[in-house]
Structure formats: C-alpha cells, structure tokens
Amino acid sequence: MPALLLRLLLSLLLVAAAPLAAARSRQFRGYSYLLDCGAAASTIDRRGLIWLPDGRYVSAGVSSELPEQGLLDPALATLRIFPRRPAAKFCYELPVDRNRRYLLRPTFFYGAYSPDSPPPVFDMIVDGTFWTAVNTTDDSLAGSASYYEGVFGASGRNMSFCLGVNPDYTDSDPFINALQVIQLHDSVYNATNFTSSAMGLIARTKFGSAGDAEKYPDDIFDRYWQPFLDSKHAVSSTHNVTSADFWNFPPPGVFNTALVAEQESPLVLQWPPVPLQNDSYYVALYFADTSPENSRTFNVYINDYRFYDGLTVTSAGLSVFATQWILSGLTRLILTPVSGLPPLINAGEVFGLFPRGGYTVPRDARALESIKRSLQNIPDDWNGDPCMPHGYAWTGVTCDDSSIANVISLNFSSMGLSGYLSSDIANMTSLTDISFANNNLSGPIPNLSKLRSLQRLHLQDNKLNGTVPQTLGTITTLHELF
C-alpha cells in the first residue's frame, strides 16, 4: 500500500475525545500496588504514600541497600537483586481483575558506579510479552533514577511482571527498586485493543512548564508529566478544567501552562524529543484556552500530515487522539491558525504500540501449576508464563515454538525436589519426555496413559512406592523407561 494512502486511512481512525456529557465519578476501586523492592518494612514517601515490602509477591532475589545519597524517594533506597542465570526470568505475581487494564511503572536506581562496572542491562516481560530492555546507564551517570511505563490488559486473575536475564547484554545481576501497578478506569486509553496490543510510554509532556517532571496529587493514576522548555511561547494561567470530563483523566494542573503561537504564525515543535522507529503509535493531545470565554480554531499536523482539521478550543478544554498513527524518526508537531486567537497546546502523550506475546496452552499451564504445588525445593524462576516469551521457559521445561505453546519435555532430574508426582501431569498431552530422576520424590506413579506421544520416562533414584502402572504398557510410543 502506498505510504500516503496508508496515512490517509489511518487518519480516518482519529477520534476527537471532546468532554464527556457528564463528569464521571472520581471514586475508584481496583487492584493497585506500591511495592518497595527489597524493603523489610513499609516506607512512606514525601507525598505521604505508603510503599509495601515486595516479599509477598516475589520468590527470588536478595535485598540490598544503597548508601545514603540524599534520595528524594525513600522507595529508591533499597533494591532487589536477582541472580544472573542466562535465560531465567524472575517474576512478581500480582492478583488483578480479569479483562481490566493496568499501568505498570517499574523504577530502577543503580546508584554510583564506575565506567569499569556499568549498570546491568536486562529484559522486562509482562505475562508472556516481551516489553523492552532496561538500560539505566545514562540516567545512572547523571545520578538519576530510570522509570518505564506501560499499559497492559489482564487476561487472567494474575499478572506477572518479570525481569529476564539476557546473556547478550551484560554479565551483571538484574535489579529493581520500586514497582507501581495501577488499575486504570475503563475509559483510559480505551481505543486500544489490549487483547492484541500493549503500550509503552514514549513521552508524556506538559507544554510551557519548566523544571523537573511533575506529579499531581489529584491525578488518580499518579503519572509523571515532563516539562517542554520554550520560554518564547510559554504562558501560564489558572482556570477550572474538570479532568473527569476527559476520557484519559489528565490532571487539571497540566492545563495551567501552554505554548502559544505568535500572532498569525504556526506553532512548530519537535515532539516527542527523541527519534522514533517506523511503527504505530498512540498519540493524545490536550488543549484548553488560557482565558475564560475565549475560543480559537486551528489545524493540527504531525510531520506535515493532517492530524485534525478545524479544532476549536475553549477554556473548557478538549483532547484529540489517534490510536494507530505511523511515526518515524524525528517528529514535528505543527499548529496552524484558522480563526480567532493563535494556536496553543497544553499537554500530550505518545505511546508505542507493540503486539501482545503468546502464552502457554492453558491446559499445560494449569498442569504445571499443579505440579508446582505438589513439589518442594522448586527452582526460583517457576513463575510467570511457563513457556513465553520464547527463550524464557521455566527451568527444566521445553516448549514448542508456536505462539500458543505446548510443553513437550520436562527435565527435572537432579534438582533436589521432594514431594509427589501430581496426577495432572497426564493432562500435558504433547509431552514426549519426562525426567524426575535423582530427586527425593515419594508416593505412587500416576496414570500416564493419556500421554500418547510419550517416548521417554525417567523416574529412577527417588522414593516412589506402589506398583508400576500397567497402563504404561498402552503407550505405544514409549520406548525408554527407567
């Protein structure tokens, strides 16, 4: 498809999110987590928020403390460090509401380091989806923390947030200081299909402001808004924009500053401030006239392509957004006047869209959870999706390479396991190999006759009792039995 035609088709997806007809309730219920990773007890930050120790939600890693460095946020003073074991992923398991969407914000602060020992680089994974690689080197060099933000849909009653050890990056241990998980209102970023996609934050900007990134006490989703410095066009004001009238609930404070074009001239901004790879992006822009009872009409372009035509902005405010806008390289945001006062802009958000990863066949995932419950001394990476993403299966588990993965082999030999063999292992009907050899298992051998593809079964050197089931003789593919 020609590029111009593609962009024209995408422009038809543009939705103007004018204020809702009635203000929505600010009351909010749902699962939310403020986890102080590595902490032994709760901490309270400077805003009075209580951060809980993370030990209840993770089974791996060791706690560590950073030397006192005048940290602004007490939650950054501790961290959890995970072992560097190539291809292992270490997961937080968080109860959630099925089919709701969640904002995840992990924060990383490595502290002082020497060029000979840079911070580790590692992967972030949510359920079976690779999110991005974490690289805190530049921020650490500046003495700053790094945070990432993504929006994911919950497909089950638990959501796993994992750090993956990628041997292609560095040879240091993954770590994390804080993890924030917030259930979003149904209207927030609701034009995205979260059953097939997830979103990673590229930029969230408050235009016309100066100084550091800001959070607002009345932002129920506790989002950071970065400043965009342009003293030539910056103005400030105070007026009553009701953020509950907007789909994405921007805090009212982001409308108190703006960038305004000069009379009869366009406003041209390079935003977001970083080059982007050629891909689809979610773009939301927020506008409110800085003076009451005023209005202005202008056109909005992104990289010379029309984003919105004839946008009329009043002091009540409005937002416009596109769910799949193609961007590449450095991006220019252009506001051109049509009538009334010069164009302005208050705030904006850009998220990169990426596909949700695959998952383990539910039948196999449930069986592995049952096996996990029947055993003691299990590996510390038996959390998250058992197979996905590819390359990050549980220790001892081998899966096929399909997007909905089947477990084809279990090799748990010489792991120091105790407990018993769960009968649910027979539900993993794609298994060709099973080995629990040289452990300390007791109890009977379950009926495995449903495993019609099983070729090898190794159960020797345990403390199993009872008889060898005659049903093993009905598995015609089985040719190796110990």
Notes on the protein architecture:
The protein has 482 residues and is mainly beta. The chain has three domains: 3-24 and 198-355, Jelly Rolls, CATH 2.60.120; 32-184, Sandwich (Jelly Rolls); 361-481, Leucine-rich repeat, LRR (right-handed beta-alpha superhelix) (Alpha-Beta Horseshoe), CATH 3.80.10.10. Helix content is 6%, strand content 39%. It has three helices and 38 strands. The strands form eight sheets. Strands 1, 2, 3, 4, 8, 11, 12, 15, 16, 17, 21, 24 and 27 form a 13-stranded mixed beta sheet that branches. Strand 9 (121-126) and strand 10 form a beta hairpin. The protein is elongated.
How would you summarize the topology of this molecule?
Layout: H1 3-11, E1 15-17, E2 32-36, E3 43-44, E4 50-53, E5 62-65, E6 78-81, E7 89-95, E8 101-108, E9 121-126, E10 129-135, H2 137-141, E11 146-147, E12 150-153, E13 158-164, E14 175-176, E15 178-183, E16 197-207, E17 226-228, E18 234-236, E19 257-260, E20 267-270, E21 276-287, E22 295-302, E23 305-314, E24 318-329, E25 332-340, E26 344-345, E27 347-355, E28 359-360, H3 362-374, E29 375-376, E30 397-399, E31 404-405, E32 407-411, E33 418-420, E34 433-435, E35 440-443, E36 456-458, E37 463-464, E38 480-481
Parallel strand pairs: 2-4, 16-17, 28-31, 32-34, 33-35, 34-36, 35-37, 36-38
Antiparallel strand pairs: 1-24, 2-15, 3-4, 5-6, 6-14, 7-13, 8-11, 8-12, 8-15, 9-10, 9-13, 12-16, 16-27, 18-19, 19-26, 20-25, 21-24, 21-27, 22-23, 22-25, 29-33, 30-32
